[in-house]
């Protein structure tokens, strides 16, 4: 492996994409036997033989050339979470959705243009085992001009960390009856290492800070507070909002915020930030779940710690996407078509639970969905050619879509949409939460300029309404960002396939990655002509009765 990460910044010549710098990053993906939480030692995914993977910083307009060497013994892929990819879907990193992945021993370059976006994003593998095992890091796109006035920035990113690798965990699960599966109580990593021994956040008196808070979690949620300091949210998931004061942030897997915090005027005291790692799918166990972490906010090395009395969570104001208004004032979209999806759970007798939207558990096809859309001509508008396991919905250019998601499931879910963001319009109760020992979700509707996001939490026994407009051709993967994606909770939106066919030219190197793995790059989901799905693995049709 390469001994270290190195980065080249080269000015882009005229005629190239973007209008900033060409930023080159070289990643050799492998594993490293290491303890990141201070308790367990096992093989973590590493880059250039080092963990944690360093955050990636660019400036709006830069074009990131991410050169990846796969030194693993299985395929890999890199997803730039939250990035639009305007007709470059093949760089989205969703294996067997928009590409074939990088086979072992091969090199591939992802090209990510940041012309149209700023904010907090992240880079991660879209293969569940690799994501859970540490293949994740923040990806920050800085504005050329600050959107608000502040003196400095701080970055805090959080990961949940198991006591064993994902594959080891699955091997244990596969040998047990689902009702006897042990709960995996995870630890928290802050900026890559044990959450209770992290480096201090250093504040200077009187300065105003932009604190970027990024959740790289895969299964748990977290609550973040800075007692003794006032927090104002100024953006979520790369979308600027009108400032809103809160006592704390409540983040699900994949969510990101920027907050403004003004330091105190003196160095008389030091403070602590608080993080609670929690999940509603496990019963509370004192000292185990929820887990509580504290990190130092340092004004002076020798200053005493300021004592601030604890306050119950229900007495505090927490971040809520529906309380935010988009700073650009984009109004509520109309509805041309509504797509209703119902989250279901099914537990086979001797297996781990399967989660689905409606009746089919998502599973990969034999041809990446993007290549089916590109190669099938007018049939690309017929959802059946994509295979029942994709639950494909074909969308037309200019349509305003409302996605209505119902969940009478015991678990919360974190719903992520690739290739853009949606307006978060409405939430409300669905089913009997109280009878199932879950808190009831109150009805709430957005304001006139709904906040847009690419990740939202849907609580158990609730519904949520999301809206977006089809403004270009794309393969939009919509899925739970927890392990439930691995278990089938996903659907695919085929947006304007005619425009995909008109505007997209797939690079030869993308095709080569497929050929090396004997994966077809044309035809329907089975790689055949027309509606012939012969050879396509039978999808899991879930009986919820």
Secondary structure layout plus pairing:
Elements: E1 7-11, E2 21-34, E3 42-47, E4 56-59, E5 63-70, E6 78-81, E7 107-113, E8 119-125, H1 128-132, E9 136-142, E10 152-161, H2 166-174, E11 187-190, E12 193-194, E13 201-202, E14 208-215, E15 221-225, E16 231-236, E17 239-246, E18 248-251, E19 256-262, E20 271-278, E21 291-298, E22 337-346, E23 354-357, H3 369-375, E24 393-395, E25 400-407, E26 413-417, E27 422-429, E28 444-445, E29 452-453, E30 455-458, E31 462-469, E32 474-480, E33 490-495, H4 497-503, H5 508-515
Parallel strand pairs: 2-5, 4-9, 10-14, 13-21, 22-25, 24-33
Antiparallel strand pairs: 1-2, 2-3, 5-7, 6-8, 8-9, 10-11, 11-12, 14-19, 15-18, 15-20, 16-17, 16-19, 20-21, 22-23, 25-31, 26-30, 26-32, 27-28, 27-29, 27-31, 32-33
What does this structure look like?
- Strands 12-11-10-14-19-16-17 form a seven-stranded mixed beta sheet, with no helix packed on it. Strands 22, 23, 25, 27, 28, 29 and 31 form a seven-stranded mixed beta sheet that branches.
- The N terminus is likely disordered.
- β16 and β17 form a beta hairpin.
- By secondary structure, it is mainly beta.
- The longest helix is centred in the N-terminal third of the chain and has 9 residues.
- The protein has five helices and 33 strands.
């Amino acid at each position: 492996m390469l001994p270290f990460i190195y980065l080249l910044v080269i000015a882009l010549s005229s005629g190239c994409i973007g209008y900033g710098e060409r930023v080159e990053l070289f990643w050799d993906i492998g594993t490293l036997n290491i303890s990141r939480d201070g308790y367990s030692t096992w093989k973590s995914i590493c880059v250039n033989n080092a963990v944690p993977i360093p955050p990636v910083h660019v400036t709006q307009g830069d074009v990131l050339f991410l050169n990846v060497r796969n030194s693993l013994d299985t395929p890999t892929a890199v997803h730039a979470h939250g990035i639009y990819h305007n007709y470059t879907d093949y760089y989205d990193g969703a294996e067997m959705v928009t590409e074939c992945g990088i086979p072992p021993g091969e090199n591939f370059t992802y090209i990510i243009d940041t012309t149209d976006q700023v904010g907090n994003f992240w880079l991660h593998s879209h293969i569940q085992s690799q994501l859970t095992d540490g293949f994740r890091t923040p990806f920050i796109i800085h504005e050329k001009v600050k959107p608000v006035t502040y003196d400095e920035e701080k970055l805090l990113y959080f990961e949940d960390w198991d006591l064993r690798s994902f594959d080891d965990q699955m091997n244990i699960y596969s040998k047990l009856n689902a009702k006897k599966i042990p709960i995996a109580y995870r630890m928290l990593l802050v900026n890559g290492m044990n959450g209770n021994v992290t480096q201090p956040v250093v504040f200077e008196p009187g300065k105003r800070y932009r604190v970027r808070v990024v959740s790289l979690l895969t299964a748990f949620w977290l609550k973040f507070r800075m007692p003794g300091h006032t927090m104002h949210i100024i953006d979520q998931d790369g979308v600027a909002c009108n400032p809103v004061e809160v006592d704390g942030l409540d983040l699900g897997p994949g969510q990101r915020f920027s907050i403004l915090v003004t330091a105190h005027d003196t160095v008389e005291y030091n403070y602590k930030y608080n993080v609670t790692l929690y999940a509603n799918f496990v019963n509370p166990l004192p000292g185990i779940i929820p887990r509580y972490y504290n990190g130092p906010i340092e004004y002076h090395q020798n200053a005493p710690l300021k004592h601030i009395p604890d306050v119950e969570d229900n007495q505090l104001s927490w971040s809520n996407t529906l309380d935010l208004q988009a700073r650009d004032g984009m109004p509520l979209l109309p509805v041309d078509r509504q797509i209703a999806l119902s989250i279901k759970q099914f537990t086979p007798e001797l297996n781990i639970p399967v989660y689905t939207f409606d009746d089919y558990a998502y599973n990969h096809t034999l041809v990446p969905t993007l290549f089916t859309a590109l190669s099938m001509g007018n049939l690309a508008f017929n959802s059946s050619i994509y295979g029942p396991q994709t639950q494909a919905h074909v969308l037309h250019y200019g349509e305003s879509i409302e996605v209505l998601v119902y969940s009478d499931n015991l678990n919360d879910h974190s719903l992520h949409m690739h290739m853009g963001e949606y307006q978060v319009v409405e939430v409300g109760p669905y089913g009997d939460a109280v009878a199932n020992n879950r808190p009831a979700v109150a009805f709430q509707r957005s304001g006139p300029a709904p906040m847009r996001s690419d990740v939202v939490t849907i609580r158990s026994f609730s519904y949520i309404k999301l809206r977006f407009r089809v403004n270009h051709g794309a393969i939009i993967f919509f899925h739970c960002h927890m392990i439930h994606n691995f278990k089938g909770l996903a659907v695919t939106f085929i947006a304007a396939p005619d425009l995909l066919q008109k505007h997209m030219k797939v690079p030869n190197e993308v095709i080569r990655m497929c050929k090396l793995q004997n994966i077809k790059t044309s035809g329907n989901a089975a790689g055949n002509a027309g509606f012939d799905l012969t050879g396509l693995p039978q999808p899991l049709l879930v009986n919820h009765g």
